[in-house]
């Protein structure tokens, strides 16, 4: 069982950003190759620029995890992406991760809330909410994604996006945001792939024959089905491997917790 953390460092900010502690961080292009070879999105394609305007890059001097904008001041991601909030910068409106395109907004993090039942070993309740110091400016490049009104149905086609590695046999992180479509799998199919490891807070999506998936570097990013955020990239066995689909935090099952945090701390 491996969470989809990114160990390949690619950053594209070239900006000075004032954080809440009034320190300045200068983020420069960084490229290292100290990652396992099963990162990705695998089997996808370059997203149409800014077609996923809720997509977030959580940056700690390099791209570390993905996330999703759910309103103008809150980000949702995976709990296993947690870092000290003062070391994290949230980037919205990005597409080419090495180029400042003028569409990006660089946001400091005020507070992080992860589920009190989060289990770092099983990755149950793998969810966190990040409150930004200031609201983003919503525009054609930056828009929140709707939270689910109901749970997804097996067979629903969904979009996963991220800047994770695009190969399973070598390390190469893409410069541009990648997309891949995957179907929601049934609970029976999910449990069959991961006996005894799937909880009510998890949902599987992908192809049992393999070939398309999300993985390290895509952690925390969105699984969007019919215009709603139904999943958060969480974990899996390898990447795009036959009989091992991606496992996502099941957002619909955690809506009471999400609503409670938003109402208590907004």
TrEMBL record:
This is trypsin. Residues 41-263 form the Peptidase S1 domain. It catalyses: Preferential cleavage: Arg-|-Xaa, Lys-|-Xaa. It comes from Amphiprion ocellaris (Clown anemonefish). It is found in: Secreted, Extracellular space. Keywords: Digestion, Disulfide bond, Hydrolase, Protease, Secreted, Serine protease, Signal, Zymogen. Its main location: secreted. SUPFAM superfamilies: Trypsin-like serine proteases (SSF50494). Its EC number is 3.4.21.4.
